[in-house]
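Form 12-C: Joint structure prediction
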Amino acid sequence: MERIPILRMGNCLIVAIQVDMHDRLAIALQDDLTERIVKDKAKGVLIDISALDVVDSFIGRMISNTAAMATVLDAETVVVGMQPSVAITLVELGLTLSGVSTALNVEKGMALLQQRRR
Amino acid sequence: MDTPKGAALIEILSRHRDALLTEWLDQHLSIALRRGLTTEAEMREQFRSFLNVFTDALQRSDILDANRPEWEPVRAFLAEMSAHRARQGYTPVETATFVFSLKQPLYVRLRTELDDDPAALSEVSWNVNLLLDSLGLFTTEVFQRSRESIIARQQEELLELSTPVVQLWEGILALPLIGTLDSARTQVVMESLLQKIVETGAGIAIIDITGVPTVDTLVAQHLLKTVAAARLMGADCIISGIRPQIAQTIVHLGVDLTNVTTKSTLADAFTVALQRTGSSVLTPSATA
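Section 2 - Result
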């Protein structure tokens, strides 16, 4: 089955979503990510959604939940690279990802993670 | 009964063409020339073309009904003229008079031609009257529609003009809002702000609402939406330019702005933004 790769960099995990998210993929990502955070003792998670230009309420909630789960496992989570259209859609859907940090791109997201962990 | 009256009309129209034209022009020209909107030559040309199209349609259709397909060219001609006049600033009355002023010269001709047959005269007059009335009303309708489209276009332009996003500093954007925020404008504001955030990579956006006359729950909700969307993109928002009355209204309405930084002036907001980006502005005397 198709899976979204999770890369480790230091004690941060990087998830780059480069394909169209469908529901099963999102659930698989949640499983994989939580497992990897525990296994790698990761302290930070960076989710890059810059290639995602369509979201529905389910995917929005999955992103929000995944970030919340990572936070519960004591890893800072940053969602980066959200497209304007996606941001507008999520706001209209009432999903403001209130517990999640955001950054404009991977570079700024990494800087944010480093700064938080210091 | 239809054929004879159509034929009579065509004959009158073609025989007295020039006389009709001149009289018609005399009637109508005084209005148009007074306002300096057109020239006599242009006017004459317009009348001549209209008369041509009109006679053509008459020859093709025996029934004097402007809604029939044979009259399509006449309607098209009038529509174009009417739209043109709407742009030039004629009044609806002046535009409709273009058609109506044909009545008098035409009736005079009809009376002289059909003097010996009162029944035919009244029959033809009535039909011509109906036809010209419906054409005149059509002109007014098109005129109104063109005006509406002009207004709609202006509204659109205004919308674009009133939502500039400016870059104040490296990484700091400002969005001075002027006028009432409705749903359509919020959409435009949000889109242009988010687009600019992507382009400039800005981390802070200052939304200045000095020019927003009133803030009700809907406007507040729109503001919060914009702030939330910007935050999702990784940019913080500061709302500035909150006047005392607006502060009172916001609290009375129970709008929750606790998650948003608010400042009373744009200058204050800018200072905060500079601090957050780690920049500072020094006056020369301080450095010396």
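Section 3 - Comments
Chain A touches chain B at residues 79-80, 82, 84, 86-88, 90-92, 96-97, 102-105, 108-109 (CB under 8 Å). The mean pLDDT of chain A is 88.
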